Amino acid sequence: MSDKEKSPLAKRFRGFMPVVVDVETAGFNAQTDALLEIACIPILMNETGKLYQGEAFNAHLEPFAGANLEQSSLEFTGIKLDSPFRKSIAQDEKQAIRKIFKALKEIKNAHGCRQCILVGHNAHFDLAFLNALIARTNSKSQSPFHAFSVLDTASLSALAYGHTVLAKTCKMAGIEFDNDHAHSALYDTQKTAELFCQIFNELPMLPIACETQTDTNHDEVL
User: Fold this and answer.
1) What pLDDT was estimated at residue 29?
2) What's the pTM?
């Protein structure tokens, strides 16, 4: 796709479509600990060049066979694995992630983007669990995400607001944040997406960056 055919969103992020991702887990080790919730929200651009949240895709996941479950992590997130409601909606990892990937690919293609880039608050934590999930489910060919590049709202928040904690940064930015809903993958993703959009919408690109935004080398990595 030539530069002239690229959408403004694709041009803004060098062919990438930002997708905010948050995971809730049963520990900190992506290789051994269960991934229990995942939520993804694509970031889109309106006709005036402002970023906004697209449709959210989320799933409660069944722990993979042999997964480690740290009780302290379950207590921290408040996830109750034996909850009748959770049992009724929890999905198989492979089925859930491939459905999400399919939806994201359709949106990515519709906006002329070549790949998704993960946006997260302390993003490499989320990426590690996402990549482990991709490996477990043999979904590499289905994944629309760049394997290692991310956009981190903790770093962006340090630049824009001088703080890195999501809840505190949201409040500093004038974004409502309810701690009673925190540590839900969907809620945290929505708030991270709102923060990401606000930072980019309030801090536009420098003129020199706009003038040099002509990179068309699809083999280059961030």
Assistant:
1) 98
2) 0.91
Q: Which of 111, 124, 146, 183 is catalytic?
A: 183
CB atoms within 10 A of CB 18: 26
Q: Which domains does the chain carry?
A: 3-202 (3.30.420.10)
Strand (E) or helix (H) holding 217: none
DSSP label of 33: B
Sign of CA dihedral 20, 26, 28, 31: negative
Write the DSSP assignment of 75-138 as a string of letters: HHHT--TT-HHHHHH-B-HHHHHHHHHHHHHHHHHHTT-SEEEEEETTHHHHHHHHHHHHHHTT
Pick out the chain residues at pLDDT < 50: 1, 3-4, 216-221
Q: Distance (Å, rounded) from C-alpha 80 to C-alpha 90? A: 12
Residue 160 CA: distances (Å) to CA of 34, 41, 163, 186: 34, 22, 8, 24
Contact predicate 153/125, CB 8 Å: no
Asked if 161 and 172 touch (Cβ cutoff 8 Å), the reply is: yes
Nearest Cα residue to 20 out of 63, 60, 67, 52: 52
The question of whether 121 is a catalytic residue gets the answer: no
Query: Closest Cα to residue 222, out of 129, 134, 127?
Result: 127
